[in-house]
Task: inverse folding
């Protein structure tokens, strides 16, 4: 087994690192403080090919593998997890879902704009009363012959106000339970579709999270993705890959905090020596480095499974479960290594600590990842 990255992988990694340093780092603290969406930066991500990395070039994508995507997600998340969640949703939920399951017309119509960043996508599964228990969809998509009539509310939607293309999961045949659910493309501006106020969040504050309201929203039948009743399966199998994206985001948050803590520990002196010479600090750094390497291996394993067309629901869930814990643990220790300076904004680690928490919640909480993993190992 060769653990070496290819030249192409290294080039993607370097391009993402450069982009994060030059375009995302300036202003990241201000965007977090004022909950400002990284609009210009996301536009540039589109121009550089970071928004449709794995999509076939014939739809405007980069035609890259999932390993490249993990590497880019890690680099961008080291600096700005608000920007990287936009990237993750657009790449691995919206573009991937459309490319894998959409009709040729849908792909031609939506993917070129989504891969280039001219438009951004959103993935709308969660509801006020259906988060982990995702089959309990209350949003309805009534079959009206040539169109669907959508009614209901979606909650916590990333890119809620910045997106133009929304993949909406809704119930058409309640008596069929999850087999009656559909996935439907809804365009921004469709009459009856309203965007609720922005959530005021603990972390990833630059990302815009909104509830969405659907009031007799009329959508043509050709906007349904896949066969009638395929919507829940669509959501679950899309999330399998989405979880690799969020695992890589968590990995990036952890490695960003570790790099800052390592540097700071060599600069800061206490008791006449750099604090990196105190064994208590050395052991923290050793734990961080070990956990981060293990998290990276799990992310790359899941990506390699996906690229090789092996099942990746378990490896993706394991990567997300583990990397999100590593993100939490590492950022807390990075703040500790910074002492009082870690508690103020200009040292970045407090933001990374706040950003880390969401990786244990969205795209399936850690408890849900354990359900996914245990079902796989017990079956
Ligand atoms: N991959 C493919 N199919 C899957 C699947 C998976 N990982 N998990 C379930 N399914 C399929 C099952 O095979 C089953 O299909 P059949 O009936 O045809 O066999 C169907 O889905 C129903 O499965 P279950 O009976 O297992 O359903 P359940 O009610 O017990 O719950 C669950 C399954 C795993 C808990 C699921 O509800 C779940 O994943 N919940 C978490 C929801 C989630 O991750 N939300 C994320 C929202 S998006 C987001 O958060 C984006 C962001 O932040 C940026
Ligand atoms: P609940 O499901 O109510 O869970 C509450 C607690 O109970 C959790 O700890 C959970 O793990 C635990 N729990 C629930 N069921 C079980 C069980 N069976 N066994 C053990 N423990 C259990 N959703 C989207 O569709 N699209 C998005 O773009 C999106 N972006 C988001 C962005 C942010 C910032 C946030 C906060 C959320 C986002 N979400 C999005 C929603 C997210 O996926 C849900 O919050 C998540 O799935 C959990 O659902 P819930 O909040 O309803 O919690």
Result:
């Amino acid at each position: 087994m060769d653990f070496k990255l290819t030249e192409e992988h290294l080039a993607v990694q370097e391009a993402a690192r450069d982009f994060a340093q030059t375009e995302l780092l300036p202003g990241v603290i201000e965007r977090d403080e004022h909950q400002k969406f990284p609009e210009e930066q996301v536009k540039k991500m589109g121009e550089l090919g970071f928004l449709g990395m794995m999509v076939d070039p014939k739809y405007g994508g980069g035609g890259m593998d999932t390993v490249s995507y993990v590497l880019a997600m890690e680099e961008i998340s080291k600096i700005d997890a608000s920007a990287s969640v936009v990237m993750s949703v657009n790449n691995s939920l919206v573009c991937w879902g459309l490319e894998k399951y959409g009709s040729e017309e849908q792909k031609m119509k939506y993917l070129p704009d989504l891969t280039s960043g001219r438009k951004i996508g959103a993935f709308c599964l969660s509801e006020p009363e259906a988060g982990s228990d995702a089959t309990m969809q209350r949003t309805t998509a009534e079959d009206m012959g040539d169109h669907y009539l959508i009614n209901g509310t979606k909650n916590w939607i990333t890119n809620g106000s910045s997106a133009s293309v929304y993949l909406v999961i809704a119930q058409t045949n309640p008596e069929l339970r999850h087999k009656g659910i559909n996935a439907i493309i809804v365009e921004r501006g469709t009459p009856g579709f309203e965007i609720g106020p922005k959530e005021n969040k603990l972390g990833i504050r630059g990302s815009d999270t909104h509830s969405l309201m659907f009031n007799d929203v009329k959508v043509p039948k050709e906007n349904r993705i896949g066969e009638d009743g395929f919507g829940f399966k669509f959501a679950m199998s899309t999330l399998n890959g989405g979880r690799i994206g969020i695992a890589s985001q968590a990995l990036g948050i952890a490695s960003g905090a570790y790099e800052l803590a390592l540097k700071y520990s060599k600069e800061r002196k206490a008791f006449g020596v750099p604090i990196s010479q105190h064994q208590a600090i050395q052991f923290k750094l050793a734990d961080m480095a070990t956990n981060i390497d293990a998290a990276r291996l799990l992310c790359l394993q899941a990506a390699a499974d996906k690229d090789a067309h092996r099942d990746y629901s378990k490896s993706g869930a394991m990567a997300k479960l583990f990397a999100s814990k590593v993100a939490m643990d590492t950022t807390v220790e990075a703040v500790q290594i910074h002492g009082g300076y870690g508690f103020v904004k200009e040292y970045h680690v407090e933001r990374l600590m706040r950003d880390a928490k969401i990786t244990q919640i969205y795209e399936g909480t850690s408890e849900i990842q354990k359900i996914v993993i245990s079902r796989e190992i017990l079956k």
User: Anything to note?
Assistant: The first strand starts at residue 121 and ends at 124. The CA atoms of residues 336 and 355 lie 16 Å apart. The chain has a mean pLDDT of 98. The radius of gyration is 21 Å.
